[in-house]
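Task: encode each sequence below as structure tokens.

Item 1
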Amino acid sequence: MAGAEFEFSDQDFQRVRRIINQVAGISLADGKRELVYSRLSRRLRQRGFRRFEDYCDFLETGGDETELNEFVNALTTNLTSFFRESHHFEFLAKELLPALIRSRGLSNRRIRIWSAGCSTGEEPYSIAIVLREVLPATGWDVKILATDLDSNVLATAERGVYEWNRVKDLSEPRLRRWFQKGRNAQAGWVRVAPALRDLITFRQLNLMGDWPMRGPFDLIFCRNVVIYFDKPTQQILFERYADILAERGHLFVGHSESLFKVTERFAPLGKTIYQRCL
């Protein structure tokens, strides 16, 4: 790249693509070259490397697991918001949870939900709000597992502290009930209520690695994650989701994602809403 601080050849770009695919299953498109340079240049500066070739050598020889995590963090996008793609939360509140309440007797009041690729936490906290608002106050064993590959965004999610502009579009009743406003030095910030935080377990997880949890899950949110994977990787992931979902369990994917011609183990129920059928 002419005039750039670091030389970044096509060979360097292909090595980066190969490494991120091997480590995280992510397939970088040809058009991502400038983005890759911009994000990884910061890593080279911070670690004192003069060339991308040397940096890639360092990653591939297993020189530093911490740096490998930072490499992945730098190349993953974390765009999210509370109640993003609101139709999913409407379906959860008006269709799925009422159906679970009706179908489960006194001996089976267990609900498990997985937020896969939870980013900075807005998604699992939005799920928790719906659960608290819809389910009876007592008598239910409810847990949300929230995972992400990026350790930096997970730290933000676990803190549960957000700038005011991240929540300002929520309704006033929800803001009063589920968020605590900061004062003095913390003015302009909010903290999620303990009643939400108590439902969620945050864990770092590579979706392409081993899964320590056994399930079954009633619902999996995996939204705007598989767009970074090639079709064979998507097929593997959706097969694993089907295996860990409860019978007739549900899967929500992102607005630009589809299971069409990827797997036959799910039936479409609506816009980006699927139910396990096999």
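Item 2
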Amino acid sequence: MHEGLRTIFLFLLILDLVLPIASQVHAQEGSPETIGQKVVVASIEGVIGVHTEEYVKLSIQYAESMNAILVLTLNTPGGLLDSALNIVYMIDDSRVPVVGFVIDKWAESAGTLILVCTHIAAMQPGTIIGSMQPIEYNPATGTYQPVNDTKIINPILKVLDEHAGVKNRNVSVIKRFVTENLNLGAHEALELGVIDIVAKDINDLLRQLNGRTVTLPYTNKTFVIDTSRSEIIYYQPSFRVRATGFLSDPIISSLLMTFGLIITLFSLLSGNYHSVPIGLLLLLLGLLGSGFNINYTSLALILVGSTLLIIELVTPGFGVLGITGIIMLALGIALSPAGGGYSISKEYATKFLYSAYISGGILGFLAGVAVYKVLKVRRKEPIIWTIVGKKGRALDDIGPNKEGFVIVEGEYWLAVSDEEIKKDEAIIVVAKEGHKLRVRKA
């Protein structure tokens, strides 16, 4: 009897341990996850470059932290191939669905590469995609040349085959974007199986996404999209991303490089070295716009700016070196990488906000008092020390035709007088005439 009860007890204990694990494994392997209560929208506009990589990376991290769908809106003529490829790899590694949505005008070249490699691709009516043949920029002539080298073309075709093909897109048509510079409108792309949706706007896109099932190919994770009550969150780029995006414009970066080089060369050749920092600043900004690493550029700006300020401190006056150093230092700090952020509770955020207000108020009050004191001193009438009227003692006999020394407040002065003054008599200063004093008896 006791042996049978013991067997039943052990069986129930094992069952109690195994069932939760089995159900969890089944849920992980078979049950799709619902997603779509929150939708993060990030906008890729203008030329695609290293700044776009950072923006997309932060956007994906933000969407993952909120378990939200990420919608990448694209309105771009293209950009750097390396940056576009890096973004494709980021999309592959994403733990949430990434939707590409071409809006306003187009997503040509590198923009098309990003679009066809998203988990769901969509376009607005009237937009176009295509023209993916790489081009090479010659800074010496300022011209662009198409690239036909198979060492460059074939890897791009393979990327499209692997990354777009795994998402069930029409790879044969997509490859013609590279080999023939094919361009397609929204409805053409939909009919040929290049994209999945044609939508008028974000709301229409979310309506058509509702109920779809999407599987992330490289994580084998399946999601059921429910956008019936979605909260749309627009993820704004940081100053670092906006600044580098502005500098990435080919015209602006070329002008900065040209003027920076001219100013630097003329300064060195003419011996006017004070203009060299300005040329270096323009050159660094031009390099940043041309695709140079943002972190290295910000570090260079901080180092050069700090050096210029140190030089300015040990030299008299304050001029071009100091001003340029401050600008470089400020830009270097502003372009420095920021953290990806932390997930904190609402209560902690509220306490932190109140603490910041109190600390800021105290610092602001102290700064205000300091400014008030400085202004008060500056507005005060200047106090000029004068020796006239001071009393002293004659050290020599002094007369109308005889000079002698006097001591006034511990200082020795050569003095003259209109009257006879004997040694050790008290005197009073009536005037200062150059390096001499005119005195009389006190």
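Check on item 2: The longest strand covers residues 98-108. The two ends are 131 Å apart (CA to CA).
End of task.
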